[in-house]
Amino acid sequence: MDLVDPFGRTIRDLRISVTDRCNFRCTYCMPEEGMKWLPRSDVLSFEETERLARIFVERFEVDGLRLTGGEPTMRAHLPVLVGKLAELRVPADSATPFAGKKPDLSITTNGSSFRLLADELREAGLDRVNISLDTLRRDRFLAMTRRDELARVLDGIVAAQEAGFSPVKINAVIERGVNDDEIVDLARFGREHDIEVRFIEFMPLDAAGHWMSDKVVSQDEIVATIDAVFPIEQMPARGASPADRWRYADGAGQVGIIPTVSKPFCGDCDRVRLTADGQFRTCLFATTEFDMLATMRAGASDDEIAADIERAVGTKWAGHQINQVNFVRPNRSMSQIGG
Ligand code: SAM
Q1: Which end of the chain has fewer CB atoms surrounding its CB within 10 Å, N or C?
Q2: Is the CB of 149 within 6 Å of ligand 1?
Q3: Nearest CA, atom 17, ligand 1
Q4: Of 290, 288, 267, nearest to 279 (Cα)?
Q5: What digits encode the pLDDT tens for the residues 303-335?
Q6: Tens of pLDDT along 178-191?
Q7: Mutational test site, ligand 1, from 171, 179, 210, max ligand atoms within 8 Å of CB
Q8: What is the pTM of this model?
């Protein structure tokens, strides 16, 4: 049975945060010090995560599961969880392209541990990888992530490709005055390494609260900057994907841009989220959460949990209000929600 929100959008994609912890401290996401981590007992166990994921996939025909965090590779024994999720099956009579198959399993990671984990994750059933990389300069990488780990991330990208993940994508958040002078260099890196770079507009989800609209480099600016050096042409409509895509006119691959702020794509949103502490969110920017951890631990049946999920999806709003005066920032930052 499809999970449809009040605006007629069918939910197909569940983002699962497996930990709020991270080994980086990206300035646009986390503070340098003083993060308060969730107590371990408040984090969903693998069994609880699998149970919720099973309800989404087997009852509601959700056909995409993306693991995120915090940094998902910091969760011990992550391949075990991937193995459990890989055993789920979308109902055979579902209208999705995944009918009768396992859902598409992907991860968003900073890549720093991917050399150690790539093969195991691939064997466990992970399909796709997005690695975050906002700069190719070591000093700037240190300034932006507060960690001197550029070489490890670059090697993690190679490891992901060597393990057979395809496509491997790069996520690059662009912040004005910080790394907007590297748009062309990052695009070139993608072209040279057969990687789709996805530029992400800076969103008001940084723990420090320093986001301001003039720090956002818009999709139009990013397109113009790339096009001036490597001519690009827009590809057909994105569907439910958050990224608009362009192909290089010379055939050297494609590039994506996620225009959350300048061109919100809420009308096509098919995503919902589960935080590491089992809070169900119907939007990245939602200010309301539904406590699935408490529901499960109180002994709810699968039917009761499914009914709660339907009720929650019934509250999904038409769209975030970033560009409106009445926009209220969620009280948790990106790393706590699960980007
Ligand atoms: N640690 C993993 C990683 O680095 O990819 C997964 C979690 S991270 C929160 C997920 C994505 O959110 C990353 O691509 C990160 O760059 C992005 N992100 C974090 N804060 C952001 C912000 N304020 N605006 C836009 N993107 C942000």
Answers
A1: N
A2: no
A3: 339
A4: 290
A5: 999 999 999 999 999 998 887 778 888 888 888
A6: 999 999 999 999 99
A7: 171
A8: 0.97
